[in-house]
Amino acid sequence: MRAVMVFNNGLKLDFCEGFQMEAMQLVEPQATAKHGGARPGAGRKPKALVYASEIATAEGKIVSAMPSLIDSLISAAQAGDTSAARYLLDRVLGRVKEQAAPLSEDTSLPLTDEDAELLEAKAAAKRKQEVEWAALGVSGVWG
User: Fold this and answer.
1) 136 in helix, strand or coil?
2) Does an H or E element contain 21, and which?
3) In sequence order, which residues have a C-beta less than 8 Å from that of residue 111 and are 6 or more positions away?
4) In the prediction, which pLDDT does 65 show?
5) What does the pLDDT average to over 66-71?
6) Which pLDDT score, from 0 to 100, does residue 19 have?
7) Considering only CA atoms, which of 23, 29, 22 is closest in space to residue 7?
8) What sign does the dihedral 126-131-136-139 (CA atoms) show?
9) Residue 12 has what pLDDT?
10) Residue 21 has what pLDDT?
11) Beta strand 21-26 with 11-15: parallel, antiparallel or unpaired?
12) To which H or E segment does residue 55 belong?
């Protein structure tokens, strides 16, 4: 059993057996006037459609050349080309995220035990205050 629903905006829903959505596509609205207005098929075609055969030919050439390109990249990396090695490692392992500041420029001091205890005490006091406010029915946190 098939069911097709067409809406006023031109959206067409095609349902197959069990009413599970199979496909969704736009249906061109019917032109009502003979002169003026948008017509189906009017306008400049996208370059991907105009040059589809040329793009497919170029993609085919690239795909057929990939094994030799990869071999030459590996050879260059083994010969000491750092940019080729970096490219291959980035592709395999993923890029490393940049740090906000280089470690050599990071002038912040690490937390001491006293600083960590002070921060924990402040956080505990804030949690206690939020619990007390929640018991009183106060919504929101101030301060």
Assistant:
1) helix
2) strand 21-26
3) 119
4) 93
5) 93
6) 45
7) 29
8) positive
9) 61
10) 44
11) antiparallel
12) helix 52-78
Which residue reads 């205050």 in tokens?
129
Running DSSP on this structure, what letter comes out for residue 138?
A: -
Task: Say how far apart CA 130 and CA 111 lie, in whole Å.
Answer: 26
Position 143 pLDDT exceeds 80 = no
Alpha-carbon distance of 74 to 67, in angstroms, equals: 11
Instruction: Share the mean pLDDT of the chain.
Output: 77
- Answer for the pair 42, 31: CB distance below 8 angstroms, yes or no: no
Distance (Å, rounded) from C-alpha 81 to C-alpha 87? Answer: 10
> Token pair 């009413």 is at which residue?
19
- Whether this model's pTM surpasses 0.85: no
Let me know: does 13 contact 32? Beta carbons within 8 Å.
Answer: no
Residue 67 has pLDDT above 90, yes or no: yes
